[in-house]
Design a protein that fits this description.
The protein has 79 residues and is α+β, with helices and mostly antiparallel strands. The chain is built from two helices and three strands. It is 14% helix and 15% strand.
Length: 79
């Protein structure tokens, strides 16, 4: 189910809508009630990188991922 971004042509309010069906297109702006918000372009990100074996062995991301190979940037779960 895609999430689409919309912007109101009257007040400029930006909002997102989860489209489950084609009828989920918003008819009005949720902020000011103006008709026909404009659908914007949405950027998205996808990560296909596998976590390192070191990280899979960590009991929690906060406890031991900060040391070893994971602490050197190999762990996709550490900020």
């Amino acid at each position: 189910m895609p999430i689409y971004e919309y912007q109101c042509g009257k007040c400029g309010y930006e909002f997102e809508v989860l489209h489950r069906t084609a009828s989920d297109t918003p008819k009005t702006c949720p902020q000011c009630g103006a008709r026909k918000p404009v659908k914007g372009f949405s950027a998205f990100a996808v990560s296909a990188r596998d976590p390192s074996p070191q990280c899979q062995a960590c009991p929690t991301a906060a406890s031991s991922c900060a040391s070893g190979q994971c602490g050197a940037g190999g762990c996709p779960y550490s900020g």
